[in-house]
TrEMBL record:
Presence of the UniProt keyword Amino-acid biosynthesis in the record: yes
Protein name (database record): N-(5'-phosphoribosyl)anthranilate isomerase
EC number per UniProt: 5.3.1.24
First-tier enzyme category under EC: isomerase
Organism, as annotated: Deinococcus peraridilitoris (strain DSM 19664 / LMG 22246 / CIP 109416 / KR-200)
Domain of life: Bacteria
């Protein structure tokens, strides 16, 4: 039995990073892609250094977008003191080469959207099932995902305190990730919702990896 990990995405300030840590999250997401929640490298570095060693810092990038070339991603990751990369838009044979190169430097959460082909397994790679529009609050069809939800995968897409328990009863996610349901406005967290989200994940209990 294992505890479900929690990532609070779209963190833009030290205050919200400490909030996520103190509420009991395992990771924060720092978005470098085009987004209302985007942070720059130096801001992300200040956040990373402020939270201490126990909270993972996941850098969110869109491959194929400005700033998504691997050399730029690695430079940003170094500046921002990231612990892992979250990669959107990785697909096909070129995507697999990109991924294998990225995995030489950082563990990777690869984003899979409904309808995407499932990637080959690689050491250091975990999958994050998310909606087609990341950060939009759109939920996935959890029942429809059941047959393709690989063990060890993460779940995102419209999760919040009100529905994460139900999602976890349907899908045995290794981790859950949320942003829009936890905000007062894009990039600014609502402490009550962050705490409520962490409580709701805990209340759902540990998952049985052998089901
Ligand atoms: O959140 C964004 O603005 C964003 C923009 C571009 C690429 C990725 C983005 N977010 C990535 C995340 O991991 C979100 O937490 C995930 O998509 C879930 O979002 P939500 O449905 O709002 O909870």
């Amino acid at each position: 039995m294992s505890r479900t990990r929690i990532k609070i995405c779209g963190t833009t300030s030290i205050k919200d990073a400490l909030l996520a840590r103190d509420a009991g999250a395992d990771a924060i997401g720092l978005i470098f892609a085009r987004s209302r929640r985007r942070v720059d490298g130096p801001t992300a570095r200040r956040i990373s250094l402020a939270v201490g060693p126990s909270l993972a810092r996941v850098g969110v990038f869109v491959v194929g977008e400005e700033g998504g070339a691997l050399d730029e991603v690695l430079r940003t990751a170094d500046v921002a003191r990231l612990s892992a990369l979250q990669l959107h838009g990785v697909s096909g044979a070129a995507g697999d080469l990109y991924l294998q190169a990225a995995l030489r430097y950082y563990p990777v959460l690869q984003v899979v959207r409904p309808g995407d082909e499932l990637p080959q397994p690689h050491e250091g790679l975990e999958l994050l099932f998310d909606a087609a529009q990341p950060g939009s609050g759109m939920t996935l069809d959890w029942q429809a995902l059941r047959t393709r939800f690989a063990t060890g995968s993460w779940l995102a897409g419209g999760l919040g305190p009100q529905n994460v328990g139900q999602a976890l009863r349907i899908l045995p996610a290794a981790g859950v990730d949320a942003v829009s349901a936890l905000e007062v406005s894009p990039g600014i967290k609502d402490p009550d919702r962050v705490y409520a989200f962490v409580r709701a994940v805990s209340a759902a209990g540990p998952r049985n990896d052998h089901e």
